[in-house]
C-alpha cells in the first residue's frame, strides 16, 4: 500500500490545473518514465500519491463543480496535457473573497475575467472544520498576487486545523518571523514563500548571476522583464498589488550578489499582459559585468515556457516534503525545500546547496 498525501487547494486556477493533471499523468506511469521531475520519489511518496480532498475558489464557473471540471473552466488557459482527470467527488467551495480579486479583473471579456460567485463564503470556522472533516494533510495556497489578507486567512486556518501549509504566493508568511514561530510552536510544517518554477526566469537568472560571481566577474547591472497572457499577469496589471512580489523576485537574485550594486541597477518584475499568449510566459534577462582588466561584457537571454506546469514541477515536491515533515513530527518552516522551491524562503542558499539540503532532508540526515 503506497503512502498518500491528502491535499487541499485554495485557488483552482492554472497552477492548480497543471498540478492536478500532473498527479494523474504520473500516476499512470512507471517510475522509470518519471521524466520532468526533480524528485521522483520523496521517501516513498510518488507524484501520483497525492489525493485532492478539498478546494476553494471564488469564480462562479468553478464554485460548486467537481474539481475535475473546475480545473478546465474559464478563465483557466493553461496547456491540457492530461485531459482524462476522473471525477474526484470533491466540490469546489466558495472561498473568502477579502482582497482576492482586483477591481480591474471584472473589466475584461468574460472568458478572461472573474465572475464572482453568489454562493455563501466559507468563514474561517467553516474552512477549519472542513479541513478537519476531510483529514487534509497539506494545504497549498494559490491566492492571487496582492491578496495579502486572503493568504493570511488560509494560513490561520492551517494553524487552527493542524494542516501543513505551502505558500505558493508572495505574501510573506513562512519567511515572517512571527508567523514562522507560530507554525513551529504548534508543530505544523510550512513551506514558502512564492513558488520558484522548476526552470523559470528566477532560477535561470540566479544561475547566470551565480556563474558571474563564481567566475570573478563583477555584476554591474541586471534586469528581468516578464510578460504573459494568463490571469496572473492580468491581475498584476494593478501595480499596487505587486509590493511583496517585487521584493520577492528581486531578493531571489540580489541575495546571491555579495556586494551592493545599487537599487537602480537591478530591475526584476512583470512587464505586461498579452492575452493571446495565454499561459505562455516570456522573460528577457540581461546581465552587465566586467571581466579581465575591467573590460565590459553582457549576457542576454530569452526564456519561453508554459508558466503553470513549470510551477507545478516545484509544487509537487514542496507538497510531498511538507507531508514527510508531518510524518516525522517536524514543525515550523522547512528550510531546505523552501530554499529550493521558493523565491523568498526564510533563508536563502545557492540553488546547488539547497538541492543537497533537500536530499539530506529526504534521507533523514537533516531535520528540516
How would you describe this structure to a colleague?
There is one protein chain. This protein has a seven-stranded parallel β-sheet with strand order 3-2-1-4-5-6-11, with helices on both faces. 33% of the residues lie in helices and 20% in strands. The chain is globular, with a radius of gyration of 20 Å. The protein is α/β, with parallel strands linked by helices and 368 residues long. Helix 10 (335-341) crosses helix 11. The two termini are 26 Å apart. Strand 2, helix 2 (67-70) and strand 3 (92-94) form a beta-alpha-beta unit. The mean pLDDT is 94.
Which bin fits the share of residues in helices?
25-40%
Name the poorly predicted regions: none
The total beta strand count reads 11
Strand ordering within the main sheet:
3-2-1-4-5-6-11
Descriptive terms for the model:
20% strand; seven-stranded parallel sheet; 11 helices; 368 residues; four-stranded mixed sheet; alpha/beta
Short description:
With 368 residues, the chain is of the alpha/beta class.
Ordered list of secondary-structure elements with their pairings:
Blueprint (H helix, E strand, L loop, with lengths): L4 E6 L3 H14 L22 E8 L9 H4 L21 E3 L29 H10 L4 E4 L6 H14 L2 E4 L9 H9 L3 E3 L9 H14 L4 E10 L2 H5 L7 H12 L11 E8 L6 E12 L3 E12 H21 L4 E2 L1 H7 L9 H13 L5
Parallel strand pairs: 1-2, 1-4, 2-3, 4-5, 5-6, 6-11, 7-8
Antiparallel strand pairs: 7-9, 9-10
Helix pairs in contact: 1-9, 3-4, 10-11
